[in-house]
Amino acid sequence: QSALTQPASVSGSPGQSITISCTGTSSDIGTYNYISWYQYHPGKAPKLLIFDVSNRPSGVSNRFSGSKSGNTASLTISGLQAEDEADYFCSSYATSGTPYVFGSGTRVTVI
Amino acid sequence: QEQLLQSASEVKKPGASVIVSCKASGYPLTGYYLNWVRQAPGQGLEWLGWINPSNGDTRYAQKFQGRVTLTRDTSTTTAYMDLSRLRSDDTALYYCARGGYSTSWYPDSFDVWGQGTMVIVSS
Q1: How many Å apart are CA B94 and CA B38, to the nearest integer?
Q2: pLDDT of residue B82
Q3: A98–B62: do the CB atoms touch at under 8 Å?
Q4: Which of residues 50-69 of A touch B (CB under 8 A)?
Q5: Bridge partners (DSSP) listed for residue B10
Q6: How far apart are CA B83 and CA B64, in angstroms?
Q7: How far is CA B48 from CA A17, A55, B14, B83, in A?
Q8: Does residue A1 or residue A49 have the better pLDDT?
Q9: Over pLDDT 90: what percentage of chain B?
Q10: Partner B contacted by A100 (CB < 8 A)
Q11: Is the pLDDT of residue A73 over 90?
Q12: A59, A49 Cβ separation under 8 angstroms
């Protein structure tokens, strides 16, 4: 089992906004702001979308935004586009064994 | 362009060892921590460990302590992950991923990833 819980799938229509949740504990998300989000297209290298809860690396679209409340982090994709169809996973610093824990991943489908 | 290029897929028998390589280009390998993570079929990602390529310091996940060894060759800008005593549940896609600056550890995100190396463990 993954340390962080994500919904298996989320879908939306082009132009809509969707939000992916990532739930952890007080040993990771609840205490630390070292939360990242990644986009993964099968067969390609994962791409960093968000770091430190809500910061975007240079070159990442501002349609991607991150937030946190309590033990849950969230990734919102605004203005959903066909190219956003991919897997997304979260990561957090943790003090419960390994320094990095990951979510199980969420498949985003643009319908 | 900053890239990490990993070695090709491997098929190994239970009990054997596997070495996966990860060559850095477009940036100095010694400038950043290098992490290794894996994803088993149908599972989430799992962190195995990191190496500081500037001095060779390593940290391993407790689960893999004693079975995984991370090394690097600065002359070829290549990092290596050696996983021994392979089991069927080690079947996974293994990634190397760049962390933060090697001057001091910080829980940085991973901003450059390799393309992944599939390791299949089967008798």
Answers
A1: 4
A2: 98
A3: yes
A4: 51-52, 57
A5: B119
A6: 9
A7: 34, 25, 19, 10
A8: A49
A9: 94
A10: yes
A11: yes
A12: no
Q: How far is B74 from chain A (nearest CA, A)?
A: 23
- Quick one: tokens of A16? 């809509």
pLDDT in tens, B50-73: 999 999 999 999 999 999 999 999
What's the pLDDT score for residue A1? Answer: 62
Is it the case that residue A97 has pLDDT exceeding 90? Answer: no
CB A85 within 8 A of CB A13: no
Q: Which residues of B touch A (CB under 8 A)?
A: 4, 35, 37, 43-47, 59, 61-63, 95, 97, 107-116
User: How many whole angstroms separate alpha carbon B27 and alpha carbon B22?
Assistant: 13
Q: Which chain B residue has its CA at the smallest distance from A98's CA?
A: B61
B79, B24 contact by CB (below 8 A): yes
For residue B7, the tally of other CB atoms under 10 A from its CB is 17
- pLDDT tens column, A36-56: 999 999 888 999 999 999 999
- Is residue B9's pLDDT more than 80? yes
CB-based contact (8 Å) between A91 and chain B?
A: yes
For residue B61, which residues of chain A lie inside 8 Å, CB to CB? 97-98
The confidence score (pLDDT) of residue B34 equals 98
Strand, helix or coil at A82? helix
Q: What are phi and psi of B63, to 5 degrees?
A: -60, -30
Residues 23-52 of A with CB under 8 A from B: 32, 34, 36, 38, 43-48, 51-52
